Amino acid sequence: MIWAVVLILSFISLLAVYSSTGSLAYRMERNSTYYLVKQLMVLGLGLVIIYLVHTINYTKFARLAVVMYLLSLPLLLYTLFFGTTLNEGSRWIRLPVVNLTFQTSDLAKLALFMFLARVLSIKQAMIKDLQKGFIPVLLPMLFTCALIAPANLSTALMLGTTCGIMFFIGRVPVKYLFLLLMVGALGIALLFTISKLTGFGRAGTWEQRVLEFTGKKKEGKKNNSFQVEQAKIAIANGGIAGRGPGNSIQRNFLPHPYSDFIYAIIIEEYGLIGGGVIILLYLIFLWRCVLIFRRCPYAFGAFLAVGLSITLVFQAMLNMAVNVHLVPVTGITLPMVSMGGSSIWFTSIAIGIVLSVSRYVDEMEGKKKLEALETAADTKKETTILQTNKVGRIRPAM
User: Fold this and answer.
1) Pick from 324, 36, 67, 293: which is nearest to 166 by CA?
2) Residue 142 Cα distances to 6, 116, 249, 297, 304, angstroms
3) HSE-up of 267 (CA within 13 Å, CB side)?
4) Distance between CA atoms of 295 and 358, rounded to whole angstroms?
5) Beta pairing partners, 90
6) pLDDT digit string (tens) for 248-305?
7) pLDDT(394) > 50
8) What digits encode the pLDDT tens for the residues 118-142?
9) Positive or negative torsion for Cα 340, 341, 343, 348
């Protein structure tokens, strides 16, 4: 089922990216199929990554999680001060040899959830103890979110919320979750204040986006809600059934119609029906991952499945909420659908890990069923032998 969802999302991605990159290809003096071929190669490599990762026993990721987490922290710190600045935020690192950029937050998200799954599984016996149980799982999340927030607050908030859900599933007491909420609110207020006073960070952008979302506008500031207005027009044009594949009009006016606002283009071309299908696919993915979580006999695999799936689906829902103007603009892409490179590959690694857990659970259940059948067959055979022996001892009446 998960494979089916991934393949369908990949096919929708190809259709949407090809339709929404026509103007971009013209401006960049590229062939009209250039970005389609590029996305096809990225998705093809992503599917290969999913297959290769899912063949690895998920228990081996427990040790790798520590290495990845310790590696992600200095990379986030480097990105914060020396990263490539795009769209007013330092979120990328440019690899010198291949000249490719990737968001270190994508690596950090994957590493953090793998690491938290490991720590939560180890601390289950003492998770209700604040000092010995909760603090060891809280600190890694705080460090990661603190390094991501100055350049990418929306990702940090999404990460913190998803970790809170994971903590709740991991039997962390509710009073500790309220403590986490208070610490997060205090941290955001402190970050915003420091950014306003020092000019380091994106406090001005955050403030402007919130004001635009609430329908207000700062005096002397230019209204930057153009992309939201164009997304609304695209959704209104789509109606119930849409304008049809490749017939989008707003792709020529909407900024980033192939990444942040690709969901609006999908609704314009395929209508509310197409938008509903996208939501349904992500919910099916989450449902199947929850079933894996419930069936997994070990805590590490269960937390891996539920943590990685929730962050992926929550990101998708947040992106779609931005497109329909339910939350302020965040700059978060639609997983496995938006045009991208490294983000799709890191998502593919996460899906491969979930499938690895599922494969291991299926093998365990298969062995149990086989052992049960063999035991039942042996019992039946022994019963038959005993009955035969009893019949053999009966003497005919004289």
Assistant:
1) 293
2) 31, 12, 43, 29, 19
3) 22
4) 9
5) 85
6) 888 888 888 888 899 999 999 999 999 999 999 999 999 999 888 888 877 888 888 8
7) no
8) 988 888 888 888 888 888 888 999 8
9) positive
The answer to whether residues 126 and 164 touch, using CB atoms and an 8 Å cutoff, is no
Taking alpha carbons only, the member of 279, 259, 389 closest to residue 330 is 259
Q: What is the pTM of this model?
A: 0.84
Rounded to whole angstroms, the Cα distance separating 315 from 333 reads 8
**The tokens of 98 are what?**
């291949």
CA dist 281 and 5 (Å) reads 6
Give the separation between CA 167 and CA 303, rounded to whole angstroms. Answer: 10
Find the distance separating the first CA and the last CA of the chain, reported in whole Å: 69
- 3 state DSSP class of 28: coil
Dihedral of the CA atoms 49, 334, 149, 83 (nearest 10)?
60
Q: How confident is the model at residue 351 (pLDDT cuts 50, 70, 90)?
A: very high
**CA dist., res. 279 & res. 327, Å (int):** 17
Please state, in angstroms and rounded to a whole number, the distance separating the CA atoms of residues 187 and 141: 13
296 token code pair: 């997994």
What are the tokens at 89?
Answer: 């935020």
Phi, psi of 103 (to 5 degrees): -80, 120
- At residue 274, the 3 state secondary structure works out as helix
| Residue 219 burial (CB count, 10 A) | 4
Closest by CA position to 185, among listed 159, 147, 157, 154: 157
Amino acid letter for position 31 = N
Q: Which long-range contacts (CB under 8 A, 24 or more apart) does 60-64 make?
A: 61/114, 61/304, 61/353, 61/356, 62/118, 62/300, 64/114
Task: Answer for the pair 144, 105: CB distance below 8 angstroms, yes or no.
Answer: no
Most distant CA atoms of the chain, gap in Å: 119
H-type helices in the chain, by residue range?
A: 2-20, 22-27, 34-54, 61-82, 104-122, 135-148, 153-169, 174-198, 203-213, 226-238, 262-295, 299-323, 342-393
Backbone phi and psi for residue 324, each to the nearest 5 degrees, phi listed first = -100, 10
